Amino acid sequence: MDSSLFLPTVVAAAIGFFTFFRNFRSHKKLDSSSLSPPSTPSSLSHNWTHQVFPSFRGEDVRRDFFSHIEKEFQRKGITPFIDNEIKRGESIGPGLIRAIRGSKIAIILLSKNYASSKWCLDELVEIMKCREELGQTVMAIFYKVDPSDVKKLTGDFGKVFRKTCAGKTKEETEKWRQALAKVATIAGYHSSNWDNEAAMIEKIATDVSNELINSVASSDFDSLVGMRAHMENMEPLLCLDSDEVKMIGIWGPSGIGKSTIARVLYSKYSHEFQLSVFMENIRVRYPRPCYDEYSAKLQLQNDFLSQIINQEDIKIHHLGVAQDRLKDKRVFVVLDDVDQLVQLDAMAKETRWFGPGSRIIITTQDKKLLNAHGINQTYVVDFPPNDEALQIFSMYAFGQKSPNGGFENLALEVTELSGKLPLGLRVMGSYFKGMSKQEWTNALPRLKTSLKALNGEIESILKFSYDALCNEDKDLFLYIACFFNNEWVEKVEEHLAEDFFDVRQGLHVLAEKSLISISSGYIRMHNLLAHLGREIVRKQSHDPGQRQFLIETRDILKVLNNDTLGSRRVIGIDFKYSEIENELYRSDRAFESMSSLQFLRLDGNYIQPISYLSQSMNYLPRKVRLLHWEHFPMTCLPSNFCPEFLVELNMPDSELEKLWEGNQVIRNLKWVDLSFSINLKELPDFSTATSLKKLKIPGCSNLLELPPSIGNATNLEELDLNGCLDLVELPSSIGNAKNLRVLDLRGCETIVKLPSSLGNVTNLVKLKLSGCLNLVELPSSIGNATNLRRLDLENCSSLVELPVSIRYAVNLKQFIFSGCSSLVELPHFVGNATDIKELNLRGCSSLVKLPSSIGNITSLKNLDLSGCLDLVELPSSVGNITNLKNLYLAECSSLTELPSSIGNVTHLENLYLDECSSLIKLPSSIGNITNLESLDLNECLSLVELPSSIGNITNLKKLYLSRCSSLVELPSSIGNLHNLLTLRLQGCSKLEALPSNINMKSLSELDLTDCSLLKCFPEISTNIKYLRLSGTAIEEVPSSIKSWSRLVDLHMSYWLNLGEFPHALDNITELHLSDMRIQEISPWIKGISRLHKLVIKGCTKLVSLPQLPDSLAFLDAENCASLERLDSSFHITKFIDLNFVRCFKLNQEARDLIIKTSTCRFALLPGEKVPACFTYRATGSSLSMKLNGTNRQFPTSLRFKACVLLVNKGDVEAGHWNVMEVSCRIKDIQNGVNVICRPRNFHLLPTLLRYKFFPRLNEHLYIFEFDEKVSSSELVFEFEVHNNKWDIGECGLRTPTLCVPRVDGN
Where exactly are the transmembrane stretches of this chain (predicted)? Predict the structure, then answer.
């Protein structure tokens, strides 16, 4: 909520809210598989006494290989256990066992003679025991031995082992055998895979260091009082063992600790999820959009995706991207401080956006928002009990959980006065910290008086702490509260340098007093404290023109509409002019009397400015340091404006053609943002811009050139020219900007080449050139940019080759070539950039091969070759990239096979081969990639079989084989995939059977859609949740279905024997039946008590529907051409969607039932005119309503039921998918108010009606309900269909009914 709606006084609202709330009670590191067994206990609680325990055979490695490891460990601060002082005997003693059990990491260095030592073998047995019992991390190094020889005890290693076993008991040797077999399966380090032993040692030491760092239990929240209880209360709501996607609300007043609880949850659990994100402070960072809600949601979702997938500079074009990217990912999401439904719609509209087991946590002060979004699991954060409140206060006042001796009664008294709100306790504790007992005694009477005067309201508690500040710190507090909250520290320091002696010290004082916090370089002030500061300023004068800051809309309008009200006292104006409907000001001289104005922010927030702003202005104060004016309406700043003091200039989306006339002194200017000022033709002279750090002018499509004086901006760090379409070249003087770190030329389509002087910019870190369609080459001097980390050449379609000098850019970590369709090959020296983490060649359709040197990039984690249509093979050296996590080969249609060396890439987690239509087989070595979790072979049309070794990939969770039309069978070894969650075989038309006698115990989703030769399937899993059998020859479900307790979604063509297991479907929530032979649906369907969605689309012989379960919300009966009758109870069910498209035979009774049925969104059925039961009817899309003869008092809330006749324009192609939505605008004739209405609960639903249009689908009725508050009896309704394929032929409304809110407020 904007502050102007909360102020001028917070007292009444706060007292009421806090009183209500107090009385209210509501009844990674190394891959884990290589470290510890599947169900290892947590190692965090174990008391580790050593960091690393090495087990090795001294005579093999002590003097060379292991000594080098010790040296690298020492360099990285890693201390291994050394056993030099332990006397060796026949067996390991208790001291050594204690050392093993006390070590966080055990490293087993397996060499040729390792098994010759009984001592080493006993160590190994103890280590593997600790791995299972204590969760000890175990790392294996196979030094000049083959892991298979260790596992099978063959070769020289086996010979040595058998010699050691001579004369030993069978029990002892069997323990050794088992331990060796287990350690051999750990994905360790193989010396045979490394050409450089030093690099191998460096990698081992780095991994050990990372594991030690990641394994340290967080103590960040140990001092938080009451947090353990919060965590215990939250655990049942989280239910982390469940695969169900859960949205959980955390609700409570401001300052109660909601965000802190969410932060602790995130710290504790996020590492267990595939992806995670903490979206903090959403209410402030993403305020309510006033005009273009869709663009606001796009921006929100764009930022959300960018953070959760950790990818900069992504740009989405529609709201379906999040669901598509995350639907199969297990994610942990925190959406902090949400205050609008559009924010949830953009980032977490519904649970099916996320993969099984995902958890979405939402913190908010608005419980109605949670209810509206369908979140029924909410944790209510209550005020702490008295003892905890005292502990919280004591932590900040005394640095411990109890008061110091002699302060007990004083602390209790202050705690009571603080109202037990954690924020108040924190602020008051910080205030009293360090005071003597006498100072406490002196301060308490004033505190009591202040609280008594304001009835104990929390604002007075906060003001008490404010009053204790010195005058300069008070001023700084007000500056932040009114203007600089959530602002970058560096900018605040710069803007306030002239007004404060030491801004940094002042910020430090405010932070110490808990009046602000500084996080990630930004100043954060709690909204209650910000309200306090604004209230203090408001009380400076009854006349707003006599105050320091103008923030509230009505005050600003009052001052700007009268040029006599402003005064020298005003130093800052922060105005969101999107909140008004009239012009911003009528006086062109509004700012003349404000000669001291330093900070001017006018935020348009998506509004088109012309109708809101006067387009002439004669004066801007010369002392302005910050000028932020979105949609500035003039072509140039006033001629008398002097930017001498200007530090920051932000004028995005302006009408500017140039900033000012002539040359101006701008030596103080540091930040400039003219984004999307599409009329901008020239930039000012930068000769004096020696302080400029950031220049942002993206989307300035008429800008032809940069002035040569840009070279004078020697402190420039970031230059953003993204989307400057007409920019032909950069001046050679750009080479003088030696501090430039980021150069963004994305979408500069006209640029052909870059100046050679760019090589002088040696500090360049990111060079973004994506979409430079005419860029033919890079300058040879680019090799001088040795600090370059990211080079983005995406869609540089004219780029044929790279300069040889690129070999010197050895620090590159991201190399993006996707869409470079003219690029035929990569130079051999690309392998020099050994630190590259990501290499993106997606869409390089002319690329024929990769250089063998690619195997040198051992740090590579993501290799994307999707859409490389001419790529025939991968070099065998790809097997050297052992750290590779993701390999994308989708649409490599010329690729016939993978090299056998792919089996060496043992850390690979995701392999995408979908649409590799020429791929005939997979190498048997694929079975060595035991960490693989996802294998996508969709539409590999030539693939005939899978290798039996696929059964070795026991960590595989997703196997996609849809539309592999040549696939005849699956190997029986697939039964070994005990962790497989999803198996998709849709469209495998030659597949006749699945392997029998297997138990895929984790299998949750099985899709056999359109496997037309498949007549039955074996009992492969009883845990299936989603079963899709449509288009198969399967007519009977297996008898074991009665024990499938998790089945919720069943798609079948036919169901001969389903009635034999009536209780098998008790948990079903979604049922699809699609066979044209179905003539009737059994009455027992009513007993499926949890059924939420029923799809009978295309059941063309179905004549009638029986009584349906009350739980049903969605019914899709599209193209049920013979459907005539509905059960008479049909209208009782409260539906969300009803789709009867092309059900032309519905009798009148059925049509009446559908019209009578209440829906949250819509009902759609054939019809040629609006039925007579709609009292108000009209031709076209508009009708008038006069509520005659009513005794209603206005305003009043009414429920309307509308019907519109949709008429096909006749230009819809057969089978064309499209989207349908109808909305209504209500015009109040008497009061001149317009309101846009949509169906009730529209925001709860994930998708609009989506279905196939057919040429014969001419006229249908679209019926929906909506609630709205109206202020008079004379109304005009204008309906609109949001689809250019359709018109509205008629419209109608029933007489509205009174809308009575439910008791719970919904």
Answer: none
